[in-house]
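During the reporting period the student researcher (J.K.) took over the structure-prediction task from the postdoctoral fellow and processed the backlog of single-chain submissions. One of the processed entries is reproduced below for the supervisory committee.
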Amino acid sequence: MSFLQPKQIEFDIAAFYNAMDEQRQARGLSWPAVAREVWNQSPILNAWRKDHPISPSTLTSMAKRGDTTCQHALFFLRWLGRDPESFVPGLTYDHGSTALPDAGADERLRWNLRQLYEAIDGQRHVLGLTWAELARELRCTPSQLSGIERARFAISMKLAMRIVQWLHRPAKNFIYTAHW
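J.K. obtained the following structure tokens:
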């Protein structure tokens, strides 16, 4: 798998949103119906956890904000049956090496942010970079990077994908099926 430098490519949130909208329209669904389908991919886990469901505005606001959280993106990628790398234009990859894990009705896909942080920090040390230097390279703030270690829920999908590209690893290396 060949990854380009993060300054040259970016997770295309507009293409991601458009793929969702195309699927929605092809299936004759409203955004609330899409939100229900996305949420109902894990009915057993949802019933057990009693979480609040995905809101239609979480879906539609992606286009306005130009990003989404890395954890929300996994719900949507699962619904589309696509991997994150398929939304990075110009990225050369083998789908077989980037396919996300299958998740059952009692599971959700989740980013392992601690593992992502450890990989960033390890590579940062190998290269002798400060957090500020790495942040400049990844087009974010040092606190966004160091904060990944403490992140309870999510970081930006665009940042998550810049990081995995910088690490020259597929996103799936940092994604797992969660049972809680």
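The committee noted the following: The first strand starts at residue 108 and ends at 111.
J.K. will present the remaining backlog at the next meeting.
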